[in-house]
Amino acid sequence: MNRREFLILMGWILAGAQIPFKARAASAEERILIIGAGMSGLAAAQTLVKKGYEVVVLEGRNRLGGRIWTSQNWKDTPLDLGASWIHGVKDNPLTALAAQIQAKTVQTSYDRYSIYTSDGKALNQSQEAHLESLWHKIQSAIQQANQQNKDQSLQSAVYKGVKYQSLSRQDQQWVDFLISARIEQEYAGSSKLLSAQWYESEAEFDGPDALFSQGYQILIQALAKGIQYTLNQEVKSIDWSEDEIVVKTQNKTYLADRVLVTVPLGVLKAGKIQFSPALPQEKTKAIQALGMGILNKLYLRFPRAFWPEQSDWIEKIPQGQAAWTEWLSLKRTFQLPILLGFSSGEKAKSMEKWSDQEIVSSAMQTLQTIFGKNIPKPSDYQITRWGEDPFSYGSYSFNALGALPPMRENLAKNIEEILFFAGEATERYHFSTVHGAYLSGLRAAQEISNASNP
Ligand SMILES: Cc1cc2nc3c(=O)[nH]c(=O)nc-3n(C[C@H](O)[C@H](O)[C@H](O)COP(=O)(O)OP(=O)(O)OC[C@H]3O[C@@H](n4cnc5c(N)ncnc54)[C@H](O)[C@@H]3O)c2cc1C
Question: Could you give the ipTM of this predicted complex?
Answer without folding.
Answer: 1.00
